[in-house]
Write a structure and sequence with these properties.
alpha+beta, 8-stranded mixed sheet, 5-stranded antiparallel sheet, 38 strands, about 15% helix, about 35% strand
Length: about 650
């Protein structure tokens, strides 16, 4: 077993193990962009982040790279700017929100909440406090609501926008401290804040209203499991949000669009309607990243929907009916925001050969316009080929094929391509999907000489509920045979040297480890990262979202459904592993608890399996680019050793 320090530099010599047969340069970085290296992938600038429109729709505050090349900050620009039009870097910070009059911006910087005139300096109105996040303006612009974990829970606090008075706690034990998914939503008259709470039931995310004056809180919803923030109708009589029914599977990315109609005539507000809006499609929350929004007249609702890994914006009458598609751009979306009158929207998007940028859409129709050009162009980036491959039971799975430069060149010239090692990529999220974005890691590995097939296995979103239902109470069972079918398809291609590896992170780490136990003859090496290898043994150490995901997916707790958890269990099947394994994990991970890494290492060592293990001082999502660079450098070197030099 090898357990090297994550800080150990690999150096150019390690990466030089990759040969030239499959990876010779097909582009000139001087004219086609900066080199496609891990350093440039993780440090070269992440493109546009959160983008928000001013209330009048004339200005945009968008997160983007800082001009000194270190980190990111807030840029201000006019909504009418062209693709390469002017934007002004304002200052470091994020989570920016415009005041209702469009004159000020609240934002987070250095762990504190600041308010400043747009383009001005401003001041901190809340100093650094535990878990400070999600600022939201009151309709009159006098008060800001925000979340903090200073109470030991996710609770909403209020503070005067002037900063002249100390913050005051509004909610009590609204949600668990480790569940920071939602934001406060002010009613149009400023009396109420709608929020998501598990106060009534630890396992459920319900809609609550709290009176900002009396602090009286009232549970509003009872049947739904929220997966977005509640959004008020313009007249304050209804809420709309994404969610799933409590008595159904906890679907991700295929949510119902719920409308809750409210009655304020009695001593306490109550819901007179709590039901999905009837339409022929679903809405996509993308792991609680998106909210729906209303048209200015309250007659229509807009929402994102992901199909086959590509996003679009859709619209449906608030009363229900036929939903229609608003955009036709595809790609992977990462933020969405609209003006209060529903006249304009801004979203951030990336696609196969396009970096993540902000796009402006006039909702009367037409073509969205790209507003930013933050992402550096990487040489050698390709548009993968979308394919289908047949799995063990005859079902066809979607895949995205990335080919090395030498193979692309040979196929274009009609000459015989070289035989290159191949990799199957399995996405994270389980019930999510591999998105049609830039996907720079797969781009990099292909450019280095690996044939990469990124797969959308059964149980993922974007293919309908029936497809997603295939993994209910069957995690990592039939599901883990789909990657083996992908490996078979790759070996049948004339440009693959016969050796195939598998890798993935999070649920992709779970799939990678499970696949080499369910179909051990299909893979010659595996790199599972940040995975769960025993839900039953490590569930107590998971954060709240991890617990809900696991218990819903298994139909109950390990005590209630031992036979279902036995199907998921990978730890007890590791004796079947024949491929060498490189297992990597974050030491502070609670979504996929670090105990999984420790148990897996102990089991692999006890079985005498060939493996290496590496840990990093990170949580589930890596923050330090140096650690991501190191992790994928090790992955590349490991596959080169065991699959053959590309």
């Amino acid at each position: 077993m090898s357990r090297p320090s994550p800080s150990l530099p690999l150096g150019a010599a390690l990466l030089a193990l990759t040969g030239a047969a499959c990876s010779f340069p097909s582009t000139d970085p001087a004219t086609d962009g900066i080199p496609l290296t891990l350093e440039n992938v993780f440090r070269g600038g992440g493109g546009a982040g959160r983008a928000v429109l001013s209330p009048d729709g004339e200005m945009i505050a968008v997160s983007g790279p800082a001009p000194d090349g270190g980190g990111s900050g807030i840029h201000l620009m006019r909504a009418g700017a062209e693709a390469d039009g002017p934007s002004t870097f304002w200052r470091r910070g994020g989570s920016q929100v415009w005041s209702p009059d469009g004159e000020r911006i609240a934002f987070l910087a250095g762990g504190a909440l600041h308010v400043a005139a747009a383009g001005g300096t401003g001041r901190a109105i809340v100093e650094e406090v535990a878990g400070l996040r999600a600022p939201s303006w009151s309709p009159d612009g006098a008060t800001l609501a925000y979340y903090s974990t200073a109470s030991g829970f996710q609770d909403i606090w209020l503070v005067d926008a002037s900063g002249e008075s100390p913050p005051r706690q509004l909610t009590t034990e609204a949600a668990e401290a480790d569940d920071g998914r939602f934001s406060p939503a002010w009613s149009p008259d400023g009396r109420w804040i709608a929020y998501i709470s598990n106060r009534a039931d630890w396992w459920h995310d319900d809609v609550w209203l709290i009176d900002t004056g009396t602090r009286e809180a009232h549970q509003i919803s009872t049947s739904l499991m929220a997966s977005s923030n509640p959004v008020w109708s313009p007249d304050g009589s209804s809420l709309v949000l994404m969610g799933t029914a409590k008595d159904e599977y906890w679907y991700q990315d295929l949510a119902y669009l719920y409308r809750i109609d409210l009655d304020f005539s009695g001593p306490a507000p109550r819901a007179v309607r709590e039901a999905p809006i009837e339409m022929q499609v679903y809405a996509t929350d993308a792991i609680m990243r998106f909210d729906p929004f209303w048209a200015g007249d309250g007659e229509r609702i807009y929402f994102p929907y992901q199909q086959r890994g590509a996003f679009e914006l859709w619209s449906v009458p608030a009363a229900g009916g036929v939903a229609t598609r608003v955009t036709n751009v595809g790609g992977a979306w990462s933020s969405l925001h609209a003006t209060p009158d529903g006249r304009r929207a801004v979203f951030t998007r990336d696609a196969a050969t396009e970096g993540r940028e902000a796009w402006l859409l006039d909702l009367e129709g037409g073509t969205p316009r790209k507003l930013t050009s933050f992402t550096p162009r990487l040489a050698g980036v390709q548009r993968p080929t979308e394919i289908s491959f047949r799995s063990f039971d005859g079902l066809y799975m979607q895949g995205f094929l990335y080919l090395p430069p030498a193979i692309r060149s040979a196929l274009a010239d009609g000459t015989e391509p070289p035989g290159c090692p191949a990799l199957v990529q399995v996405h994270g999220g389980g019930t999510n999907s591999y998105m049609q974005g830039t996907n720079p890691v797969e781009q990099y590995l292909a450019n280095e000489g690996f044939v990469v097939l990124a797969t959308n296995y059964r149980g993922g979103s974007g293919f309908g509920r029936e497809f997603q239902d295939l993994s209910i109470e069957d995690w990592l069972n039939d599901q883990s045979k789909d990657p083996g079918a992908a490996a078979d398809w790759l070996r049948a291609q004339p440009y693959v040297n016969g050796r195939v590896g598998i890798y993935g992170g999070s649920y992709g780490g779970m799939q990678s480890m499970s696949a080499i136990t369910r179909t051990p003859d299909k893979f010659d090496a595996a790199v599972p990262m940040r995975g769960i290898y025993s839900e039953a043994r490590t569930l107590p150490y998971a954060d709240r979202v991890g617990k809900i995901f696991a218990i819903t997916g298994h139909g109950g707790t390990p005590e209630e459904r031992p036979e279902i958890y036995a199907k998921t269990e990978t730890l007890d099947r590791m004796d079947r592993i024949t491929a060498p394994v490189l297992i990597m994990h974050g030491e502070y991970d609670v979504r996929a608890p670090f105990e999984n890494f420790e148990l897996a290492v102990e089991r692999l060592e006890g079985l005498g399996k060939e493996f290496e293990s590496v840990t990093f001082p990170e949580g589930h999502g890596f923050r330090d680019p140096a650690n991501s660079i190191d992790m994928y450098s090790r992955l590349q070197a490991f596959f080169t050793r065991h699959l053959g030099s590309p």
